[in-house]
Design goal:
The protein has 338 residues and is of the alpha+beta class. 40% of the residues lie in helices and 12% in strands. Strands 1, 2, 3, 4, 5 and 6 form a six-stranded mixed sheet that branches. The structure holds a DNA duplex (11 and 11 nucleotides).
Length: 338
DNA sequence: AACTCGTGGTG
DNA sequence: TCACCAAGAGT
């Protein structure tokens, strides 16, 4: 039987010597649940580098969950713009309002998991990091570290329950939050997806995949489907000192974000949102998670009131409030704003 | 269970 | 260039 206590102790020792300094990271026992929650939601499927500026901006604008709960929807969506996965922003606000109404964050994993936007990973992370509970945190990093440590060759996602079971055996009763962050840091900096730096790994002597020479091949994953290619058109229309925009429906792609009127992106045709001499500016290529999009960008000075969308005064308009795709489209109209 | 949902960095 | 992927959740 492997000595799990030795492995977790070695990892914590490495973490104490090499922990990265991050805006949301504080010693175990001093964490603010609000900041832990905010950072963990922002970090869902998003890199540390991309999150940093958003985290600083949000905590400056809204230092407490009560401040965030009182913020207007449109302002939160505008501040989230560019970070992606916009359901997170809508759930973030719903969660903040629920927590404010409850008077504070629940301090158990189950209590946290009942809130919008907090799933298996995030509930465990907040419970462990902010409340010191011995919950097991399993993200993509932990999946990779554990699959190598124990040489689990079953492909994901079928191996997930086994990886969770093994990670649970590793999780110590003391400092579970630091342990979780140690596992994730190890995965992010040493036990990386390609070319893992086994030579400087603090637990190389315990790694079964390393012993078998298959570390870089794990975790195995089932092949992914090809991305379909889709096309569409977006219209960027101008009125008198104004620009034609719309808020997209709450559900679906880019839900709830500020955008320019467009066709659906399934090839179906749709008339322009307003009369005007529409000129084709060019093509924007954008890769989403499950499809690639070629978006034709058209612009015009409007000659009649729009049938879709609303005219926003230009002085109230900032491309920073747009999701990335729409920023790219706008950059064809005003390259100097890109 | 499989699909939807963004974006930027990397090799 | 392009496929991969990053501190996942909701349905």
């Amino acid at each position: 039987m492997r000595d799990f206590g030795v492995i977790s102790a070695q990892l914590l020792d490495w973490y104490d010597r090499h922990a990265r300094s991050l805006p949301w990271r504080v010693p175990q026992g001093q964490a603010d649940p609000y900041r832990v929650w905010l950072s963990e939601v922002m970090l869902q499927q998003t890199t540390v580098a991309a999150v940093k500026a958003y985290f600083e901006r949000f905590t400056t604008l809204w230092p407490t969950v009560h401040d965030l709960a009182a913020a207007p929807d449109a302002q939160v969506m505008a501040e989230w713009a560019g970070l992606g996965y916009y359901a997170r922003a809508r759930n973030l606000l719903a969660c903040a309002r629920a927590v404010a109404a409850m008077g504070g964050f629940p301090d158990t994993r189950d209590g946290l998991a009942a809130l919008p936007g907090i799933g298996p990973y995030t509930s465990a992370a907040i419970a462990a990091i902010a409340f010191g509970r011995a919950e097991t945190v399993v993200d993509g990093n932990v999946e990779r570290v554990v699959s190598r440590l124990f040489a689990v060759e079953t492909p994901l996602p079928a191996s997930k329950p086994e990886l969770v079971r093994l990670a649970t055996l590793l999780t110590p009763d003391r400092r579970p939050g630091d342990f979780a962050q140690a596992m994730m840091d190890l995965g992010a900096t040493i036990c990386t997806p390609r070319s893992p730096a086994c030579g400087i790994c603090p637990i190389i002597d315990e790694c079964a995949a390393r012993m078998q020479g298959i570390a870089a091949d794990l975790p195995r994953k089932l092949p992914k489907k090809a991305k379909p290619q889709r096309v569409g058109t977006v219209w960027i229309g101008f009125g008198q000192d104004s620009i034609l925009v719309e808020t997209r429906p709450e559900k679906g792609l880019l839900g709830g974000t500020l955008a320019f009127p467009s066709t659906g992106w399934d090839g179906s045709d749709l008339p322009p949102p307003a009369a005007g001499d529409w000129q084709e500016l060019g093509l924007v290529r954008h890769i989403f998670t499950h499809f690639a999009l070629d978006l034709t960008v058209k612009t015009a000075q409007l000659t009649a009131n729009p049938e879709r969308g609303t005219l926003l005064p230009l002085r109230e308009f900032s491309p920073s409030a747009l999701p990335g795709l729409m920023r790219k489209a706008f950059a064809l109209v005003r390259p100097e704003t890109a």
